[in-house]
Amino acid sequence: MRTYAAVEQPKHLIQIQGAVPSPARPPVSPDGSNLAAFWENRGLRVCRRDGVSWGEYKGGFFSSLPFHLNLDATGEQLRAALRATGARGLRFPSANLPGLASGIYVCRPSAYTLQSVSRKQRGHVTHGMEACQFRAVDPDELLREGMNLNRDTLDRQQRHDARFLDPARWAGFVDAVRRSPGVAVHGAYIGGRLAAYMVSCRDGGWLHLMFKMSRAADLDFYPNHALDYWVLSQAAGDPEIEFVGNGFASLVPNEGLDRYKRQMGYQLQPHNLCLHLAPAAAPWLANRLTVSMARAAASRLPNHPGLAYAAAILEGVRQTRTKPPADPVQTGSDDMCQQEEATGFSRILRPAAAFPLLRAWQTLRKGGVPYMWRRGTDYLRRKLRRRSAGPAKVRPLAPEEVLNLQPGDWVQVKTMEEIRATLDARGKNRGLLFTDDMRGFAGRRFRVFKRVESIFLEESKQRRTLKNTVLLETAYCPGITFRCDRSCFLFWKEAWLRKTPPEGTE
């Protein structure tokens, strides 16, 4: 079996290889072993599979370690990792596989100076550097003083995290910091009192900043800004530290946090965050209907941030599943196609028979109960009117006109009078509608792009065959009727066209 293939990283930004210098330099670990050891010392499960460490994350997910390693995982490797971990799901960054648009905040310390900080934050950093003193935090001091900073920070962020508020779990966390190689805690002090602390882990050429807490009473002295700047400045003095990572982009948009990190000199290196649920749960929890319901619940209950997080997770799983990784990883011309792999793109909860129910749900979301009632009654009224009127009077159609057009042939669209003669009472020719957007092309000359033999209907997940139908070059839908800018090809029956000589030969 292939091991996970690391995506080739931009040489100027990300490499995988060595936190702040200390008398006893932590061991260099290029494969995430320092992070894995920190996970295990905190009582979290870690599993190593096919050369990648998976660490227990929140919500029953396991995350790949180290954080910055982009992966190209095959379907078999993901299934093996799910079996080995017993996880509800896996999350990992990738540059090639589909997933939720995300990224990791990265800074290269060798090029970091005060000028790297935005003008808005530069004054805060300068003020904090003048007011604070900086040094490593002794674990006993962290155990004694840290919970007050934890409580202040979580109250400001309106979060609850038992790891930092429960005395027994906090003691276990501090003990894990003490026993884990490469993990260090540095603090900003004001008047000899701990005002802010930061937990970091050195892994290979990376320094990962993981936890930062601060005292509310000292925020006017900007200890967070000063500590961030001091840690980066110290990392710049260590030639073995190539990059400093400051966490992933939040799954739930957090403009304030994103703006702060960018203004402090970090860049968001983009990647796709791949989220895979266990195979038995994915079809039921990651379909469009479930995701829509989760998003609706989150928007109606904004005071429950857990709902927004769950909706983001389900949307990420859905996007990851839109093009499942195969064995081996598909690239280039091997990409899956809806025409050839229709069953892979279908959803269990959306068979063709359930299509009317989906339409009803979409109508309800769009305009509420009154709008859905009006649309429903209009639909039933039209159906009943047609039934009571008897069989529809269908305009007799001329025999099927076959031109056997081929790519490259030149044609002229017939006049509207000639085209109307080919349409039935519904404006169709043998089931194909001549739309209002096609009227503007009447009388014009075009070259045939290709013949249309088969199409796949994305909404109903059905395949249809067509006869004597072509696409014309540059004849795109203008989108006037539905105010749509997709510029799709229009389908033309050969009965609406007249074959003409090539341009310049007349």
Question: What this model shows, in words?
Answer:
The protein is an alpha+beta fold and 506 residues long. The chain has three domains: 1-329, Gcn5-related N-acetyltransferase (GNAT) (Aminopeptidase); 350-388, no CATH class; 410-500, no CATH class. It has 14 helices and 22 strands. The strands form five sheets. Strands 2-3-4-6-13-7-12-11-10-9-8 form an eleven-stranded mixed β-sheet, with helices on both faces. A five-stranded antiparallel β-sheet has the order 21-20-17-14-22, with no helix packed on it. Strand 15 (428-429) and strand 16 form a beta hairpin. It starts with a strand and ends in a 6-residue tail after the last strand. Residues 1-30 and 324-350 have low confidence and may be disordered.
Keywords:
3 domains, 506 residues, alpha+beta, 23% strand, five-stranded antiparallel β-sheet
Topology:
Blueprint (H helix, E strand, L loop, with lengths): L4 E2 L26 H9 L4 E4 L2 E5 L4 E5 L5 E2 L2 H11 L3 E6 L5 E8 L11 H13 L1 E4 L2 H18 L5 H4 L1 H13 L3 E8 L2 E11 L2 E9 L8 H14 L6 E6 L6 H9 L3 E11 L4 H4 L2 H13 L4 H17 L20 H4 L9 H34 L21 E4 L2 H5 L7 E2 L2 E2 L11 E7 L2 E4 L4 E4 L3 E4 L19 E2 L3 E4 L6
Parallel strand pairs: 4-6, 11-12
Antiparallel strand pairs: 1-5, 2-3, 3-4, 6-13, 7-12, 7-13, 8-9, 9-10, 10-11, 14-17, 14-22, 15-16, 17-20, 18-19, 20-21
Helix pairs in contact: 1-6, 3-7, 4-6, 10-11
In short:
The protein is of the alpha+beta class. 33% of the residues lie in helices and 23% in strands.
